[in-house]
Prior knowledge:
Blueprint: H1 14-25, H2 29-63
Helix pairs in contact: 1-2
Amino acid sequence: MNMPNDEIQLRLTTDEANILLEALGALPFVKVYTLIGKIQSQASAQLAAASAATEAPAQAAVEG
């Protein structure tokens, strides 16, 4: 399957992303391992940023 190199952004809930990863897990590893890694990496970065954003105001309230 030849895919263009254009990037797109998808907005999924964590449940939807997990369903997608589960479905990809049923495919041959050699075809999907880079895609799975990319999804996991981007999701981890986004969840960490969201967590940091919610912790910063809470910490400021405690310190203030």
